[in-house]
Each structure stands twice: as structure tokens, then as C-alpha cells.
Amino acid sequence: MFLALDLGTTMILIWFGVIVLAGIIEASTMDLTSIWFSVGALFALIIAVIWGDNVILQAVIFIVVSILLLLGLRPVFKKYIRKNEIKTNADKLVGRTAICIKPIVNGERGEVKIEGKIWTAISNEDIQLDEKVEVLSIDGVKLVVKKQQ
Asked: In angstroms, rounded to a whole number, what is the distance separating the alpha carbons of residues 16 and 53?
């Protein structure tokens, strides 16, 4: 036997479900995307409590609030969170200058020295001994480098 619910009660339950589901998705991804849909659903839930049968208004409120918060606040929060990230020692090498101590020729691995440490390095271009290179990225335990301009 099914419980017969009016439209207003059904919408309250639906919006509550959206809040919980978006919250779970946000907790699992930590991407600051789904959380704004939880807030939009909260606003829609409030509208559902006040004007239970106005589904179109609830949907519009949900969409508008979610998109405005996503576009307006997500970049601000992402910037704040990134600012507080602690880079690992390896991450700090990206963009820095190193010296080639074993030439990189024909796409083969060579070696570079940076901050007193020797790293295996790869490059798309030939790099000669004692040439300065810029660290582009880290691929496993290898530095990806290019000739410094």
C-alpha cells in the first residue's frame, strides 16, 4: 500500500533528497561544485514549504540560485582553498631553472641538477651539457624540461 502525498509534501521530500544527494556528491569529490546545488535545493525547499504547489517557481529558484552561486562563489572559494595548499618539494621545482649535467639527445633521458639534487630529465629537444633548462612538469620521478630562453 502506497502512502498518498500531496504535491507540496512530495516536493519537500524531493528537495530534501536533492540536498542530501548533492551533499554526498560534494563530500566525495571536494570539487566545490555540488555544494551550490545543495544550497539551491535548500532555497527551493523553503519555497516548497511556503508555496507547496508552485513547482515551476521552485525549479526556477533552484536553477537560478545554483547557477549564480556556482559561477559567483566557486571561483572565490577555489582561489582561497588553492592559496592554502602546501606544495610538496617536487611541486616547487616546476618553473625553476636547472643545469643539464648529462645531455638529453634524441628524446633519451638525461640528468639535470636543481637545488643541489640530481634528477632524471626528459625533453622534446636536445639539451647539451651545462645548458640551462626550465622545469615544465614532473612525470613520475622524471623532470620534464625545455631549454631556457
From this structure: 16
Q: Could you tell me the pTM of the whole model?
A: 0.56
With respect to CATH, is domain 91-147 assigned 2.40.128.110?
A: no
CA distance 58 to 39: 13
DSSP characters over the chain = -PPP--HHHHHHHHHHHHHHHHHHHHHHH-SSSHHHHHHHHHHHHHHHHHSTT-HHHHHHHHHHHHHHHHHHTHHHHHHHHHHTPPPPTTGGGTT-EEEEEE-B-TT--EEEEETTEEEEEE-SS-B-TT-EEEEEEEETTEEEEEE--
Enumerate residues 6+ apart whose C-beta is below 8 A from 101: 110, 111, 112, 113, 118, 129, 130
Query: Consecutive 10-residue runs of the chain (149 residues): their mean pLDDT?
Result: 77 96 94 94 96 92 97 88 62 90 91 94 94 92 90
